[in-house]
Specification:
Two copies of one chain form a homodimer. Helix content of chain A is about 65%, strand content about 5%. Chain A has six helices and three strands, in the order βααββαααα. In chain A, about 20% of the residues are buried.
DNA sequence: CTTAACGTTTACGTATACGTGAAGGTGCGC
DNA sequence: GCGCACCTTCACGTATACGTAAACGTTAAG
């Protein structure tokens, strides 16, 4: 039985502007992220054009989320994503080794990273929830003042 | 000659370094925030020292939370807090007017701002939760691969 | 009154995260 | 092969968010 090689149709790759448009990034940002070692395109064309696959786009989407939604610095994102080189090696190694032991190591490593990412995001969420609670408390105090005023009180500060 | 420990401020006001230490900020940051119009100290000493009251400290704590925990830019925080001048006017006006109608207006305005802050924070939380969900999904796929490998499978990518 | 610690303003320096050309090569429809 | 949009690598410019130092005034303890 022959293993089917991954279908590498040329159209499955995207060029930098296509990726940028899809994600709402600039090409400059994507190249800058690459410069910082946050990702590297799956391939290059003969003429050295960067070519991105679906996993690259996913990763960029994740990076953008960490930046825009979570507000992490690129340095923090770099820590969160950890060793892009390992990922690139993994992507290649996993496909080219049939050895279950090697594959297991790669998967276990990925799991550890993913778990850490989830922990950090949840931590951020709980800190945000604390801020919401603080805002709610302020809201409650204000409503009490308002109620006092509407009841003919002086709304005096305490 | 042992250096004197930080002397306790006799009044209810705190000086900039005391506030900075308490909040884990630098004096430079606090002055910079003031420069951007994010806050202004409740008072100044005769010698022009900035003097902060409890509400100033609360506000600074909130600003720090928005920056460190939520990852907002100072420009966004400025929008969120909205018109510091209005707050200063409010603080004075509220104390110096006995008119319940005026006080009511001030309280209602504050409530509107607080509600908007809560909405924005909750929106950020839900976007973070979406990211957690994405990470969880990836974790689930990885665990499936791991289970396959541990069951003697090839752990083939799908 | 002295003095050490702390504060003030002003101003230039710096890291991050890109923007914006410049100068030139690539991909592709015609 | 031509033209044009897109790409490449430098390389310098810029906004944000402060750091840092200078020159000088203030505060409170002794």
């Amino acid at each position: 039985m022959t293993l089917e090689p991954p279908a590498i149709s040329p159209s499955s790759f995207l060029r930098i502007q296509e990726v940028a448009s899809e994600l709402g990034l600039t090409t400059r940002s994507i190249r800058y992220y690459e410069e910082l070692g946050l990702l590297s395109p799956a391939a290059r064309s003969d003429g050295a054009y960067r070519l991105y696959d679906a996993s690259d786009v996913d990763r960029l989407r994740f990076i953008k989320g960490l930046r825009d939604d979570a507000g992490f610095s690129l340095a923090e994102i770099s820590q969160l994503l950890e060793d892009e080189a390992a990922r690139v090696r993994g992507r290649e190694a996993y496909s080219h080794t049939g050895d279950p032991a090697e594959r297991r190591t790669i998967v276990v490593d990925s799991l550890a990273r993913v778990d850490r990412q989830a922990r950090i995001l949840r931590d951020k969420i709980s800190r945000l929830e604390a801020m919401v609670a603080a805002v709610e408390a302020r809201r409650t105090r204000l409503r009490a003042r308002l109620a006092d005023l509407d009841a003919g009180g002086s709304g005096e500060l305490r």
